[in-house]
Amino acid sequence: MESDKSGLPEEAVMEKDEPIVETPDASETPLVAAVESAEQPPVNSPTEEQSAATPEGKQDMDSPAEEKPELAPSDATPSEEQSPEKVSDPVQASTPCLQNPEEQPLPQNDLEPSEVPQINGPTETEPERSAEPQLEPPPAQSALVEPPNPEEKASEVVEAATVGVVSTEVEAANLEPKEVQKEVEADVTESDPMKTAEVVSEQAAAEPPKEVDTLPAVGSLSFALLEMEQTKKALQSTRTLVVLRGLPGSGKSFLARAIADAFKDCSTVICADDYGVVPENKASCADGYKALDEAIVALCGGEKTPVLIVVDDTNHTQDRLARMGEIAVQHSLLALFLEPHTEWSRDPEQLSKKNKRGLDVAQLETMRLQLEEVKIPLFYGWFLMSPANEKVKCSAIDFVKTLDTLEAFKKHSADFTGKAEKEVDLEQHFKAKASLHCTTKFSNYGKAEGAKEYAQNLVVKDHFGSVSELSLIAFFVTPRTVGARVSLTKEQLQLWPVDAESSVPGATGLPHGSRAHVTLACAAGVEAVQTGLDLLDILALQKDGQQGELVEMELGSLSYYGEGRWMLALREPICASACFSSSYKCKQPELAKPEKKKKPKCTIL
Fold first, then answer.
1. Do 498 and 365 have their domain in common?
2. Residue 437 is among the residues annotated as catalytic for this protein
3. Known catalytic residue: 517?
4. At 20, is the pLDDT very low, low, confident or very high (cuts 50, 70, 90)?
5. Distance between CA 516 and CA 518 in Å, rounded?
6. Is there a domain that residue 596 lies in?
7. End-to-end CA distance of the chain, in Å?
8. Which pLDDT score is estimated for 545?
9. How confident is the model over 408-466, as pLDDT tens digits?
10. Catalytic-role residue among 316, 437, 463, 512
11. CATH code assigned at 222
12. Residue of 341, 429, 463, 517 marked catalytic
């Protein structure tokens, strides 16, 4: 009987009912078992195709390596491809190598799609494998090979590399095609390595494109608290309420994350969405706004208050902005109102595609109109930061207490009381301001003259939110107000309106910036705007050469200019850190016009 090139009789391969049990070679068995159990995936060889006709010819895929039948010995030496260092294609490894590749070609892969071996992963699902009858393993022909042929070895290395590439790409693409399609594609790339790139490209094309979040442009983060080192350093030591405002989808959350990253150890972000706030329908979420405000107040008044509290909400109405400003004043926080600088921040068409709330163009347009009404604040100005705020307050109180005890002041007490020889208690006469600031432009929400032009000024936009030093050079007192005069730097004068002095009668000849001041206190019924007017009156008298009475004090020189106007020129200016920001307040209720009383009709008796 003839034998094939592997040294086994053909009847042993073609026999259906008689399994072959061979005595293993002691030197070869451990190597073969290690290769089959550790590195070879379960694959049917061409010999297995011939013996697959009967259940006894199949191999148990789940049987452990130590229970495998023993292999037949052979005079041939183990092939280099089956060594632990390099294992070739599983299909070719199970096929006996020929003495001469030209004498007998490799068997063609004529398997049906359902029988094509799987390259990476389990061959079949667990129910299908358990239903198949267990078969005896085929003869271990992979261990009986002739010395490797260089050309055949190179071909096998290419095919093994191709199989590895395909399996890796399929896993990376995270595709889940049918098992049959995966097996067919693996067989195509295995037989023709040139088609590997085509298969991989088709798989990549079949994968749906991932949705990428559109991030705002770099210019949208051009804020002073993110770019100016002096501002960042000052805000790290000042309790600040950062109020974000803008339409849904304009980039508020992105800005909030940027601020949180810049102030990692001293900031907290409060998002209105977490409290059930529906900004497009305020009437339906009154409880949400109440819970949001309570959370903000709890942070502001807590023992471990973060330095920066960032409120992420639309804040597109005046009442919400005023409420945020009110909370900041009540808890002595600096209020900083910011809006994203994205190009689409006011474009309802683009916002309808970007917002996550599913709002349409009509809803966004309604909110935009409300936001436009409060685009311009009540006023702009430099707001003194917490350490400087307390310092100036204490200095002002000391000045007023000292002035109240001076004999020169008592001689003119009638300027305050209206009656001679009646003393006045200045601490009771004035009501101190809680939050100190130096107003640059009173805008009245865009209704004041020149308010829109001032808001659109590039210098105003660039410096908004920046921190600088204000120099307080004098205190002054009148029967109506108590204030501090501010000397502005050249850079600060760029934010000062050109008509701030010329609009006041009698102050047209004063230098630019002369009106800059901080209101410290006002008498009952007097508005803070009166403080600047009182300062201009005193400066106008100085310009005209009026000297008045002079009294030397520890803080500086005190001068009296008649009608209860006193000014203390400080020997050393008081430097106070201040942030250029804005202010919002609730609308003042309009006074109802008194109804005319109807005259009683005459009755003829």
1. no
2. yes
3. yes
4. very low
5. 7
6. no
7. 154
8. 82
9. 998 898 899 887 767 888 989 999 988 899 999 999 999 999 999 999 999 999 999 99
10. 437
11. 3.40.50.300
12. 517
